[in-house]
Design brief:
299 residues; alpha+beta; 3-stranded antiparallel beta sheet; 10 helices; 5-stranded antiparallel beta sheet
């Protein structure tokens, strides 16, 4: 399988450019019109995993392949894509219009874990065919996104999180009530769910005396009572990422939050994230952000 496509790769593929501030954001969100990518010249989307979430309102005919399924879309649909499942669009020449928004897990960093929703889980329903009334309602929701993101309102991204949540719950209400309850998860998916829950329990960090204790794959394996090799295989199988990478990404996310939203010193941030030496934290941060913690804070 190809490498996971990051949110930065998405911009390079679609636009051959990348927003200057994307590395300096705690979380990223954007919304687009499908019209710019339609017509006979439109190319099929390659089959690969993405490192971001995407919600598409699609008007027209096409075909989507994801996981082990292939679905023919005859008229109009709402489609949810997530980092765990690779997908591919085909026959895009039949699409007439629509919208899509992209965002990462960090965009919802203080608003819960998106993976708790069935539409973003491996065995969940990701494609919802719509009637004309539903399309009109969702069309208005996406237009609100454009109005909001173009506004000067200082808390506009809080509003946009609410709008995205509205779409998520709109779709989930269309599903028959079934305990997610009773969906059959395979062993690797269960381990992933438990691992992510354990990882998230360590956050948010609110006090300088707090410190992250679980920082390595072996730490998590011990808590989950599984062999570290078994944990690593399960994580790689379900996310196409290593356990260490997921842990590092979450630590980096929290580091950005603490640097931007608190007045803590870099040493205090480093300690809270479980780094014994501030130099190790600085090196870790520079490796992933290409900027020092101080420079990131001051941008």
């Amino acid at each position: 399988m190809n490498d996971v496509e990051t949110i930065a790769d998405f911009y390079k593929r679609k636009y051959d450019w990348m927003p200057e501030n994307i590395r300096n954001e705690i979380g990223h969100f954007n919304v687009f019109k499908l019209e710019n990518y339609l017509g006979k010249q439109a190319k099929p989307v390659p089959y690969k995993r993405r490192d971001y979430f995407k919600i598409t309102l699609l008007i027209g005919e096409s075909k989507i392949e994801y996981a082990d399924k292939a679905i023919e879309l005859k008229k109009q649909a709402l489609v949810f894509s997530n980092p765990q499942i690779p997908y591919r669009w085909e026959h895009t020449e039949g699409i007439r219009s629509g919208f899509f928004c992209v965002f990462d897990q960090a965009f919802f960093h203080q608003y819960g874990n998106l993976n708790q929703y069935s539409i973003f889980q491996p065995d969940g329903n990701h494609v919802f065919e719509l009637n004309d009334e539903q399309v009109q309602l969702l069309n208005e929701v996406y237009l609100r996104m454009f109005d909001e993101i173009d506004s000067d309102y200082i808390h506009k991204y809080d509003v946009l999180r609410t709008v995205v949540s509205e779409i998520i719950h709109f779709a989930m209400k269309m599903q028959p009530a079934s305990p997610l309850n009773k969906q059959s998860f395979n062993a690797s998916q269960r381990i992933l769910t438990l691992f992510l829950e354990l990882l998230e329990r360590q956050f948010p960090i609110d006090e300088t005396h707090q410190s992250v204790n679980l920082r390595s794959a072996s730490d998590f394996a011990e808590k989950l009572n599984v062999h570290v090799n078994h944990l690593n295989r399960a994580i790689k199988e379900t996310t196409d990422k290593t356990t260490s990478r997921i842990i590092a990404e979450r630590l980096l996310q929290e580091a950005k939050i603490l640097l931007k939203q608190t007045s803590w010193t870099v040493s205090e941030v480093a300690f809270a994230l479980g780094f014994n030496e501030v130099t190790h934290f600085n090196n870790f941060f520079k490796k992933h952000v290409q900027a020092s913690p101080i420079k990131f804070r001051n941008v």
